[in-house]
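Handout, section 4.2: multi-component inputs.
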Amino acid sequence: MANQEDIFKKVISHAKEYGYVVQSSEIYDGLSAVYDYTQNGAELKKNIKEYWWKAMVQMHENIVGIDAAIFMHPTTWKASGHVDAFNDPLIDNKDSKKRYRADVLVEDYVAKIEAKIDKEVKKASKRFGESFDKTQFLTTNPRVLGYQEKAQNILKRLGRSLEAEDLVDVKNLIEELQIVCPISGSKNWTDVKQFNLMFGTKLGASAENATDLYLRPETAQGIFVNFLNVQKSGRLKIPFGIAQIGKAFRNEIVARQFIFRMREFEQMEMQFFIKPGTQIEWYEKWKELRMKWHLSLGMGEENYRFHDHEKLAHYADAASDIEFKFPFGFKELEGIHSRTDFDLGSHEKYSGKKLQYFDPELNQNYVPYVVETSIGVDRMFLAVLSNSLKEEELENGTNRTVLKIPAVLAPTKAAVLPLVKKDGLPEIAHKIIDDLKWDFNVIYDEKDAVGRRYRRQDAAGTPFCITVDHQTLEDETVTIRHRDTMEQKRIAIGAVNETIANEVAMKHWLKKTE
Ligand code: GAP
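Output:
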């Protein structure tokens, strides 16, 4: 595969060809930044959610899960700050008439500086060979230090201006950096303006009596407004967490990069309620736990990094992203935020209801502080899909396309293939499926030569192929082929279930998160 753009294009076309993701309403030419998950995509998405839910809810005695409505009372969004502060700074290019997020233009500029640092590292590593010390190089090479300082200064200034809502300075920064429109190539920019990202809708039978509502832009508020319901009915003691998976909606200005930035997407969020003053300790703990969850999937430690925020959201006193190396570079995959008592305190004010916890140890009431972990299901999906897609050159000089999805998340765990469509082999294959289907999602495939079927399953991401051949008729054994190594072994039909379970069972993978 060639450059990053080509790799990304390949991921998108593979997602369509192998039943993962397509554009929504494609027959009507699609809807911008809205996508549908097809048969394999729906399975992968479900497995990602289950892996998160089990790690978060089932593995923690003090975390419970809820499922709140998408529609919420409109005052929720006033209290949460979204009506006043959930804005993106946007800027238009007067020549191309294209609209951009001003902060994204600056961040893309910084990403180019970071790419220059990567290039220097690659060059030096080639030059010095085995003796190359990357850490030393990054901390001493004058050119790299210069790039780093430049990038940091730009991000600091952007953070300061956005925090102070100084949109004039954001525009000045774009002009000083001589950022051009990627379409027209011109620097002919409008002023920077704020744009609220919430989608509005109406509730009610007639236009006169309708109430203005918003589609929720985050699932977190459904947790905050239910804080006391859950705490009291579950007799929960601080520290405890409430988790939720659900849809969220944002009218994103920059709707590009496939399912990375969507207008309708899904979040997996957990609000951890704690004693005021303990937030930094819990914030660090959750950063560590969430990174462990990611690393348990074995998608390469080098593909993750933390990015601590300079610019904090209106509710946070500390925030960090777990960034993942997508085909278009390191970008936010998950956010960990110390949200203080902002949300509960504000809902108390707007609702006039007390949202306090009685701490039996301190014998006192207080509004708990909150540390939140928030990850987009779709972004996690893209991380898995893009990281798994490999083009391999085989020893015999041929190529294969393989989707090395972590086996625990793979949509189909095994394909059962009769070598030929006769001699009773299909019947045995169906019997094997009847046994496996209770535990795993498995499929039957008898079309084409077996080699082509293997390739098809490799490309679809199926970890195992079970082939029924004439020897099966004699000794009740089958071959089991491993997607990643392509190794084939002969095993008894009775051992197939356990062999698959050993690699795909969630339990084995979740143990790595401990
Ligand atoms: N409750 C906090 C919150 O919503 P956020 O950083 O705005 O924080 C959390 O979003 C996560 O949701 C992000 O890290 C990302 O994975 C996902 N996300 C946010 N906007 C998204 C979008 N437009 N499309 C897909 N995923 C998105």
